[in-house]
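User: Modeling request: complex.
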Amino acid sequence: MGEACVADNWQNGSPKGIVLNSKDEETRTTIGDKVYVIGRTDDGSTSSLGVKIYEKSTRKWVIPTVLGTRPATCKGHSAVLWNEDRIMIIKKGSNPDDCIWFLEVDTKYVKEHKGNLGIEVVAWSKGVRGDAEKPVVISGPSGVGKGTLISMLMEQFPSMFGFSVSHTTRAPRGMEKDGVHYHFTERSVMEKEIRDGKFLEFAEVHGNLYGTSIEAVEAVADSGKRCILDIDVQGARQVRASSLEAIFIFICPPTPSMEKLEERLRARGTETKEQILKRLQNAEPEIEQGKSSGTFGHILYNDNLNECYENLKKLLGLDGSAAGNHKTTLEGIDLPLNHSVSQDGNKIQINSETPELGKTSKNLIVLDVSKLKGGAPWRTGGLNVNAINSFSDGLNGINNLS
Ligand SMILES: Nc1nc2c(ncn2[C@@H]2O[C@H](COP(=O)(O)OP(=O)(O)O)[C@@H](O)[C@H]2O)c(=O)[nH]1
Ligand SMILES: Nc1ncnc2c1ncn2[C@@H]1O[C@H](COP(=O)(O)OP(=O)(O)O)[C@@H](O)[C@H]1O
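Assistant: Request completed. Predicted assembly structure:
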């Protein structure tokens, strides 16, 4: 991780210094030729922070494609440039789980999307304390038992796991609900959304288009749960190549396998004969790729369902008795409503004062950003927070450290 430097105060001509804005104002952060202006959108109609870019050499404004969920507007914010590739936003008067955000402007994830789209791209990622649990990617041929295993996991640990609801152009099965099992969609609509950079990955599978939207993954992260993705091998490879750090598990049929898969698919009774045939034809190359591509860190054989489920739990560290009480380690950061921000290397200092029993309580929160992890399209974890309180009687300065 490189050195952090503070946002340029463009407005006042000061070369360095953090801009703390009052309501409706903007921060302006210069990186090379570009000035990133973050604040209310020009039309004032949206409830989220907007981004526009001023190119100094061409003297032109560019409105970038913005990936990810945007932070809601707030009573002002500070901007701190970090590692020359992202801008940390510290919001005033926000909830603990909504006060730190990162606008990625030149990270690997953003560069990938810039390459695909050929346009200016930025991406939002919410900042959290601690480490975000790694999402779990599960792949395997049709009928192998992915859906069954995922349902068992979600049933036993409802508060821990959240399912990433994919988009697909295939028709819903009898019991499937739109928005729960899949977002069932038109091909033309999904293709446009893919072009607009709304998907983390997508692939043509068994003659239909499937994909994971960034919003689907973020919805799970927002609920504080660990994300499970049921996607094919091509999709898993794309996720592996992205910045999303995940656990990749390939579920294999028992050997000899094809008969078992056919049996299971027939017994499931959700596909026509032709559809079953297509799935079985695709199964062999899929198993081959799953086992050999190096994408998957773990391979589980689903012969006996309960045994396979136990192995899956073991792999996810859920076989201990404390598993049911497991909580995600993600936490928000409780910042005072009004504060000022300064920076000392890897440490961002947030200062505030509150009157208390005739004295003034001075609060200093130190955010250590030296161990940031993850990033868009997932959370930015690894924020370390230390709070120091002191009291002043107004004459002697700080006199009581706690
Ligand atoms: N790449 C990708 N594959 C997906 C996604 N959602 C589902 N799939 C895969 O598409 C394939 C077909 O899924 P589905 O139609 O539900 O049939 P099933 O596998 O027979 O239950 C499976 O391999 C899924 O893992 C997605 O968002 N992206
Ligand atoms: N180990 C197993 N032994 C026998 N049947 C199984 C096993 N695992 C899953 N099944 C059954 O096989 C069918 C296909 O499983 P499913 O979870 O829908 O597969 P996938 O999601 O991988 O397509 C379902 O009817 C399920 O109940």
